[in-house]
Write a structure and sequence with these properties.
Radius of gyration: 25 Å
CATH superfamily of the largest domain: P-loop containing nucleotide triphosphate hydrolases
CATH class of the largest domain: Alpha Beta
Number of domains: 3
Helix content: 40-55%
Number of helices: 15
CATH topology of the largest domain: Rossmann fold
Structural class: alpha/beta
Shape: elongated
């Protein structure tokens, strides 16, 4: 039996924390409402802030199957919903012709039966799993084309799909739908109106330290504090092309721990910036004197903070 849905915002936060996902109150609230109202949840935000992880955590903590549709340019119905197994259908036709055992009308019905149907994520999400409604993750919807977005709007309206040869397949229980977007393009208002909306922002320093502490409990506390302070400074720089997300903070912490680093210094930063930043122009801007200035500033601030707390 699947785990029952949480009955309060606090229960949602606890459910997420059990999987070491640290959510702020506003995210927990909209997630609770999405589950309670049976509405898709549309999450927008920069890459690496934890949008996809929410669907994974929900599926794990609620003991529901996770069905993921990874979006990309050119995604169509045959890749997202269903297609017919044409090779197997041709074999069936050849066998029938060889044995002369089937009438044409009956053969037509047979080859368009469910056993020749290849089910893709959207169709799978409408099926009864025996474990409750699945979690359907539609990841990076902004990468798709507008015609597919229009088709998805129809699916999300009634949670049913019509296959001309078989008829309409409707979900007995609507799936839990999480849609993510990195906002490389705007999603139409018509689809957003079907959903509850939340912008997933970068975490503040306190929450980022808690996330690193939960995800990487073996990391040195002083090093983690320096990393969080350094990353927070980078996010204030409007000249950077791509700001580091929490995923990059975790990667950098893990990498420095593997290198047995216990404190940030300019040389360590210069050698490992490629873990944190993903564009050469950004790396070139921070390397050298910029990195030295930032680490000197944050060390001074951390020392002052420790003196005040002491």
């Amino acid at each position: 039996m699947p785990t029952l849905l949480p009955n309060s915002i606090d229960e949602v936060q606890e459910l997420l924390k059990k999987a070491d996902y640290v959510a702020d109150r506003s995210l927990a609230t909209v997630l609770y409402l999405s589950l309670k109202m049976g509405r898709p949840l549309f999450l927008e935000g920069e890459a690496g802030v934890g949008k996809t992880e929410i669907a994974k955590v929900l599926a794990d903590q609620l003991d529901r199957p996770l069905i993921r549709l990874q979006c990309y340019e050119g995604l169509d119905v045959s890749s997202a919903v269903y297609e017919w197994n044409y090779a197997r259908q041709m074999i069936e036709i050849r066998l029938a012709e060889a044995t002369d055992s089937a009438e044409k009308e009956q053969l037509g019905n047979d080859i368009f039966s469910e056993k020749f149907l290849i089910k893709r994520p959207l169709l799978n999400a409408l099926e009864d799993t025996g474990r409750g409604a699945p979690v359907l993750l539609i990841d990076e919807l902004d990468r798709t084309d507008e015609p597919f977005e229009a088709y998805l709007l129809e699916v999300l309206s009634d949670f049913q799909i019509t296959i001309p040869e078989l008829g309409t397949i409707a979900a007995k229980e609507a799936p839990i739908v999480i849609i993510t977007s990195n906002r490389t393009r705007e999603i139409h208002d018509a689809l957003k109106r079907r959903c509850l909306y939340h912008w997933v922002d970068y975490p503040n320093a306190e929450r980022e330290k808690e996330i690193i502490g939960r995800k990487l409990p073996g990391a040195d506390k002083k090093l983690s504090a320096q990393i969080v302070a350094f990353v927070q400074k980078l996010r204030e720089d409007p000249a950077l092309f791509k700001l580091p997300g929490i995923a990059e903070s975790l990667d950098w912490t893990n990498a420095l721990t593997e290198l047995n680093v216990i404190s940030l210094d300019p040389d360590v930063i210069n050698d490992t910036l490629g873990v944190l930043l993903k564009y050469q122009d950004d790396i070139a801007k921070i390397q050298g004197s910029e990195a030295a200035d930032i680490i000197a500033q944050i060390n001074s601030e951390l020392e002052q903070s420790n003196d005040n707390s002491g």
